[in-house]
Input
Amino acid sequence: MAHFFDSSGLLAQNSLPGAVFLAVLLFALASVVAVLIRRGARRIEQHLTDVTALGFVSAFAQLLTYLFAFVLYAHLIPALRAFGTALLAGVSVISVVVGVAAQSTLGNLVAGFWLVLSGTIRVGDSIHMASSVGTFDATVRLISLGSTVLVDDQNREVIVPNAVIMGSAITRVGRAPES
Output
């Protein structure tokens, strides 16, 4: 059995069957970890009133799991090591271009992560907001990565980009009750 995994065997890392076997194995392991993350998040979700942050963290952890498996695979397969280096350099250039092109969107995403993880405002909070378009009272209905949905006193939805929320003066009039 040991001859299958040595450098000349059928499942060696430098052979096609060995590379495919390793890819399937790492993908299966990453999938099992992702399922465990989802199950853990569902168990924790039952004890939370606002599950926004949990959803973000769960999805991010699953993404990192698959990314780690891919990087590990690229490192373990000798033929992919040089490709991985070139890919990393290419991704660096692309990330700079995308970052400049999507600066506003990325700003909203970063602000969304900060709003969710810091708990500055939460779903159900009553706030008074002073922004560049004026001041108004509203209740926080939803906080997503890109924007926050507020409901004003006249029951109208106001969708505000998270970067605007972070750059505005907000007075919390009432805090959402905690369970």
In short: The two ends are 57 Å apart (CA to CA).
